[in-house]
Amino acid sequence: MTLLAKKLNSTKMLTFYLLFSLSLWSCASAYVIPSDLPERVGDKFIYFGYGSNMLTKRIHIQNPTAVKIGMGILKDYRLDFNTYTERWGGAPATIVPTDGAYVYGTLWEISLSNLDDIDDQEGVHEGIYYAASLPVMLPNDTLTTARAYLLADQPKTPLNDFPSSDKVPQNRQPSKTYLQCLVKGAQETGIVPWYVEWLKSVKHNGHVAQDLEQILDLKDVKLNS
Fold this sequence. Notes:
alpha+beta; Hypothetical upf0131 protein ytfp; two-stranded antiparallel ribbon; 6 helices; globular; lyase; transferase activity; gamma-glutamylcyclotransferase activity; G-Glutamylcylcotransferase
């Protein structure tokens, strides 16, 4: 082997080791858990699901360690819908700061090993949702800090401000399957009846995501819209 060939071979090996090391560092850094995570409780964290993750079958698809605590109430936020998700075929849910409003949902205790999974489910790394640590009230009037996700593209007009359901824009309408998932999750959690009835009345676009309908057993969930 010539001196030039030896140098080229050495350079290739060095490049390989550098790339390999960077790859390992990148994988490791993706799972670093922030030490100051307010919703952290030991090796777990508290999560507030107000959308499809109110339903046990749904959250366990990507977060199998989730254990239900019970109903949670988020004050001074409203539930709304905006943009579009291919997975469900309609607008996903979000929470929007709104004085005097309330959002009901499900509180979960989840292993920190699933933190990256739930961030991935919510599209945090793609800039679709961002995480926030929020004070959520339990039925016994105690407060807990929980992780929740808000759409980066928040709706400006409250859903209830539209004069009639036929005035609700397409990008503000969830799919039928998604709305059924919310209703079933709320019923499963024991959320107050008036809130469940409001969910049932939300304008949807009629789209049925057949795979999710079957996986989550949603076909018989009744809606009012």
